[in-house]
Design brief:
The complex is a heterodimer of chains A (about 170) and B (about 100). Chain A is mostly helical and about 170 residues long. Chain A contains six helices and no strands. The radius of gyration of chain A is 21 Å and the shape is extended. Chain B has three helices and no strands. Classes of the chains: A mainly alpha (about 170), B mainly alpha (about 100).
Chain lengths: ~170, ~100
Amino acid sequence: MTTNQLMFVIFSAVIIIFSILTVTSRRILRAATYLLFVLVATAGLYFLLQFNFLAAIQLTLYVGGIVVLIIFSILLTSHLGDKLEAPGWKKTVPALFVAVFGAVMCTITILQYNFPMEVITGSDRTKIREISYSLVSTEKFGYALPFEVISILLLASMIGAIILAKKRKD
Amino acid sequence: MFEGVPLQWFLVTGTIMFFVGIYGFLVRKNLITILMSIELILNSVNINFVAFNKILYPGHLEGMFFTIFVIAVAAAETSVAIAIIINIYRRIVNIDVEKMNEMKY
């Protein structure tokens, strides 16, 4: 087993175990912490695949932004000593059936499909310069329009969040 | 050059994470835990995009850009969702989905 495979197995095990704990833990703050571990392990997978920029984005935006936001809202809206009530079997059994059935179906399909394995060799390590050029270029493989659309979306959601969470005077 | 790990391993990991997220989305009652399940689902899709990009098409960047846009959309969605959750908590002092049975009072 090579080093890459060993690292992949470690990250993948962390992802699977802690994602299961995220959806089954009955203390909500612990669930948020497990989600943090899952996201950090995903950043580790990106580092393994040599997407350094993407891993940095994952660490700053997901781990530093979204999880902190979720933890703040947990602290605002629930009492820390409380346990969530366990879901009854009427909910658990169909959901478990759906999840296991879907996972098994997809896994069988993935393992049966033979992907084209002749690897296209090219410039492999992505440079920040390339990323930033194609993020604002309008030519082929340029992403200027989605970039602008996503910036408008972020602005709109920021304004929307402020207006929604603002205290009403009435 | 990245070698050694087959593409299928990444896809199976993403699949398991996706369906764990689906399970949490169906089972949980608290709104914030539902939000966390949605984050799991989005993250599993990101793993698939990145693995496809690196192993089948190295030298291209499409999967990476899709992942960046998915992360941005997830950030926008989370901020608005948390604003809505706080607003609901202010109204009915509870964020269980089963307690929310009216849109406007």
